Each structure stands twice: as structure tokens, then as C-alpha cells.
UniProtKB/TrEMBL annotation:
Entry GO MF terms: adenosylmethionine decarboxylase activity
Native species: Nicotiana sylvestris
Family annotation (InterPro entries): AdoMetDC-like, S-AdoMet_deCO2ase_core, S-AdoMet_deCO2ase_CS
Keywords tagged on the record: Autocatalytic cleavage, Polyamine biosynthesis, Spermidine biosynthesis
UniProt-recorded name of the protein: S-adenosylmethionine decarboxylase proenzyme-like
Amino-acid biosynthesis listed as a keyword: no
Length: 157
């Protein structure tokens, strides 16, 4: 795990696991490891693309192949504070150097979110895997407190 997190300058703050998923709260990020996929979400300083080479190296050592990659990002606030290749969407398409050879060739879109997606042709569609990503912005601060564990977390202006 250290080999994957160090390039992105992330450390494990806490973790939980069950039969379905191992979840980690990282410094400025969250990591979810399923038997069939990895999800990494980040907040703040964005350096997760630097973890791609060690993830691919580990996958190769385990004889695993990438079937799909999707990277989404809302806004590029404080772009100048981010390290290359995380400053601008034009740099984030460095993903194509890793995943552009998959069957779909890789595509980048801006549809309220900046989205990069690439996938291999799947011979087995009998058990499709669905992932829902829900992004909520401009929420009323008091109403947003419903998404926190503690009843005392209410943002004041």
C-alpha cells in the first residue's frame, strides 16, 4: 500500500474492512479497494495520478488487467498550487499514455465535470458492474449537515 500512496503523498489515517470492501481515510483522500475495482477520491491537493505507475505495476504482478478507467474532477480551483500533471485538464489527459491503448482509445470530456474515460472490450457482459458517482455542489450549509456523522457539524458563514 505504501508503494502506491507515497508518490501521491498520501498516508493512511484510518481504515475499515468487511467482506465487500477495504476502505481507507487518507490524508486529503479516500481509498476503496474492492475485489474487482479501486476507487480513489481526493480533496485538496491533487496528486493521485502519480500513483498510476505503481498501481499498474502491482496489477501486472498479480496478473490483473485494466478493464476500465474513469477520472472525474469538478473544477480546477487553485490550479497553480497543484503539481504537474494535475494543474489543468489538458495535463490530466496524461492518462491516455497509460490507458489510451484500451479498446475505446480514451476520451476526455467536460460536462459540468472534467471526465476522462477509457475501457477495454469486454467479452463478458453477463455481470455488469455499475458505479454511481454523485456530486453535490452549492448545498445549503445547514442542510448539508445531514451528510455528516456528528449532529454538531453545521457550517456557519
Amino acid at each position: 500500500m505504501e508503494e502506491i500512496l507515497t508518490p501521491a503523498e498520501r498516508t493512511i489515517m484510518s481504515s475499515l474492512a468487511n467482506d465487500e470492501v477495504d476502505s481507507y481515510v487518507l490524508s486529503e483522500s479516500s481509498l476503496f479497494v474492492y475485489p474487482y475495482k479501486i476507487i480513489i477520491k481526493t480533496y485538496g491537493n491533487y496528486q493521485l495520478l502519480l500513483s498510476i505507475p505503481p498501481i499498474l505495476k502491482l496489477a501486472d504482478a498479480l496478473n490483473l488487467r485494466v478493464k476500465k478507467i474513469m477520472q472525474t474532477r469538478g473544477c480546477f480551483f487553485f490550479s497553480g498550487a497543484q503539481p504537474y500533471p494535475h494543474r489543468y485538464f489538458s495535463e490530466v489527459v496524461v492518462l491516455a499514455s497509460y490507458f489510451g491503448k484500451l479498446a475505446s482509445g480514451g476520451n476526455a470530456y467536460v460536462i459540468e465535470l472534467h471526465v476522462y474515460s477509457s475501457s477495454a472490450v469486454s467479452a463478458d457482459n453477463s455481470n455488469p458492474i455499475y458505479t454511481l458517482e454523485m456530486c453535490m455542489t452549492s448545498l445549503d450549509r445547514k442542510e448539508a449537515s445531514a451528510f455528516f456523522k456528528s449532529q454538531y457539524v453545521i457550517f456557519e458563514k
